[in-house]
Amino acid sequence: xxxxxFGRANAKRLGVDLKLELSxxxxxxHNGFELTRIFNVQANEAMQAxxxxxxxxxxYRIIHKALKAMGLNTIFKSPYIDEPHFHFPPxxxxxxxxxxxxxxxxxxxxxxxxxxxxxxxxxxxxxxxQLNRDVAGRISKTxxxxxxVRRNDYANNSSIKAKHGLLSLEYYQAAxxxxxxxxxxxxxxxxxxxxxxxxxxxxxxxLLDVFSSITMHRSALAYLFTF
Length: 227
Description:
Mean pLDDT: 78
Strand order of the largest sheet: 5-6-8-7
Shape: globular
Number of helices: 10
Radius of gyration: 21 Å
Distance between the termini: 28 Å
Oligomer: single chain
């Protein structure tokens, strides 16, 4: 969503179409690419011809990597725009048309000024199921806290685990204690892709005196535990 918002902001500034490359195999780790199915996003998939038109010889990424490694990427301009670091660099807001942008772009500063457009793009297309409506009602009526337990790909995919790491049980326990000490009667909604088998692990993560009950709601692809 952050990647889309960054691309959308630049496309609007330049008055051009936004196209998304969807060939990254990591998209298949979860449910595939779902932005256009779920939301009213304004983008199309970049076809092979689009990629070649923008990248030229740089469609062979090794050329870009080699020039960058030798410090020659400022002399031989590449259409690749890599996120330089995780925090916000203001200069990135002036990227030109016909650019291939690569990164996470996780800052609201990248789309400051078009917040309403982004909110409109991220309106759900489909009505919520009755279960989701019930949960949404409970969330709105309590001091709700969302906690995401992500383990499936982080735990089982060695390359992803090596890059992002895996949060420990102690991390979740400390986070819950921190919130519980600052929010009156918090209600934790724990979202996870875990199936019911490791439910005991989730219990270990959130086992605190402030919780008295547990219920589980299952969909085809995700699980919600509430406490």
